[in-house]
Amino acid sequence: MIRTLLINNHRSILSNDLLEEIATRGNYDLIVATEPHVYSAARPQWVSDTNGDVAIRRVAENREYGLYRRAEGLVAVELNEIVIIGVYISPNIPLGSFQDKVFQLQHIVMQSHKRVLILGDFNFSTTAAGAASSNARGWILEEFLAITGAVCINDGMPTFKARGHESILDLAIIDRRMDPNLIAFTVLSEETGSDHLAVSVVISDHHTGTTWQNITPRLTNTQIQLVVRRFARKIAEQVQINPDMFQEIIVEEIARVPHRTDKYHPVCWWTREIEDQRNLMQRCRRKVQRMRTRAGMVEESNLAIKEYRAARKKLNFLIKQTKKRKWLELCRVLDADPWGSAFQIVTKRLGRHMPMLNKDTAAQQMSILFPREEMENREEITCVRDRFTQQEVINAVKKLNNKKTRGRMGSWRQLSRALLK
C-alpha cells in the first residue's frame, strides 16, 4: 500500500511541522505539500518544483522514489510503478496560463505508460469533485478528465474552511489504469495549522487488472437514444425506476451491439516494405517520447531524435517512390484497358452516388450520339429492320442496369431512359 498525505501549508512553519507529525503518526509514505515553508522545502529530503510552490517528501525510509518531472507549479516522482504528481495552481494567474498548466498535465498523463495519481491545490470549483457548480477553470479541468479518461476521486467533502466559507480546492485525480476498488480517499479532521484540511489517499501498489476503462460501459448515440426511449415508456407506464433496472437496460443495449467484421483496405500503393518502415518509424517515435519524460538523458534523447528523423525521412522517400511507380503502372494499364483497375479505383472513389445529369452533360452526350456533321455528310442507306423491332429496342434499354458502365459512345444509362420518355 502507498499512503499519501496532501495539504496546503500557506508557507507556515507551524503547519509544516504539524503535517510531518500527522504523517509520522499515520505511517504515511509520502507528503505532498502545496505552498510549503521556504526553508522546509529546501531540505534534501524534499523534492520541489522550480518555484517552490509544491513539494513532495518521502516519510518512510524503506520507500525509494525517483524524480519523474519538474516544472513550474508541478513536481512528479515515481514510486513502485506509480507516478505521483504534486500540483499547485495559483488563483491569481490568468485563464490562459491555467489552461497551459492543464495541457501540461494532460501531456504527462497521455505519454506515461504507468499509473498516475495527481494531488494538488487547483483553486477552483468543479462538479467533478462534488461542488454545486463549476466555474470557467472547472470546465477546463472537466474537459481534461474527458480527454484523458481520468477520474476525480473526491467524495464531496470540503477541503477548505475559512470565515464560515467551505469549498473543495484540494483534488485527487487518478487515471484509467488505477484500480478503482483499491483506492481510499479521506478528508482528515485533525488540526493542521492551516485553513486547508489534510487529505489522505491510500492506493494499492499492486495492479490487479481492473481499471475504470474496462468497467465503464460504452454506448453509441443510437443506443443512448434507445435507452432514453425505453425509460420514457417506463415513466409513461408509471413504473418505478431503480438503479438495478437502469443497469439491466444498459447491459441489454450493449449486448445488442453487432461486432464489426469489415476491415480497413490499404491504398493501392501500399507495400510490405512501407509497412515495415512505418513500424520502425513508430518505434523510434515512441522511444523519443519516453526520453523526453526522463531527466538527465540529453545525449540519449538527441540520438533517439536523429534515429527518428532518419526513419521518417526514409519512409517519406519510399512512399514517394512507390506512388510514382504505381502511377506509371496505372497509366500503362489505362492505355491497354480503359475499364481495368484504373476504372475500378475511380468508381470506388465516387462511391454509390453517380454524377448528376445536367443540361450541359445531356447536350454533350446528344452530340456524341447524333453528330450533326456525320448526319449531313452521310449517304442514304437502307436499314435492315427485319432483325429487331422498335419495341424490342425499348425493352432492351429498360432492362439495362443503372450502374452499367458507359459503352464505346460514352453515353449514360440515365440519358437512354430519358430518350425513351
Instruction: Spell out the CATH superfamily of the largest domain.
Output: Endonuclease/exonuclease/phosphatase
* CATH class placement of the largest domain: Alpha Beta
The CATH architecture of the largest domain comes to: 4-Layer Sandwich
Radius of gyration, CA atoms, in whole angstroms: 35 Å
- Name the beta content range: 15-25%
Categorize the overall geometry: elongated
Describe the structure in your own words.
This protein is α+β, with helices and mostly antiparallel strands and about 425 residues long. It folds into 4 domains: about 1-215, Deoxyribonuclease I, Chain A, CATH 3.60.10.10; about 220-255; about 270-350, no CATH class; about 355-420, no CATH class. It is built from 14 helices and 14 strands. It has a 6-stranded mixed beta sheet, with helices on one face. A 6-stranded mixed beta sheet has the order 5-6-7-8-12-9, with no helix packed on it. The radius of gyration is 35 Å and the shape is elongated.
Q: What are the key terms here?
A:
421 residues; 4 domains; alpha+beta; six-stranded mixed beta sheet; elongated; single chain; 16% strand; Deoxyribonuclease I, Chain A; 14 helices; 14 strands
Helix and strand layout, with pairings?
Layout: E1 2-8, H1 13-25, E2 30-34, H2 38-41, E3 46-48, E4 54-58, E5 66-71, E6 74-79, E7 82-88, H3 95-111, E8 115-121, H4 136-148, E9 151-152, E10 160-162, E11 165-167, E12 170-174, E13 183-187, E14 199-203, H5 212-215, H6 221-236, H7 243-255, H8 272-292, H9 298-336, H10 341-350, H11 359-369, H12 372-377, H13 390-398, H14 413-420
Parallel strand pairs: 1-2, 7-8
Antiparallel strand pairs: 1-14, 2-4, 3-4, 5-6, 6-7, 8-12, 9-12, 10-11, 13-14
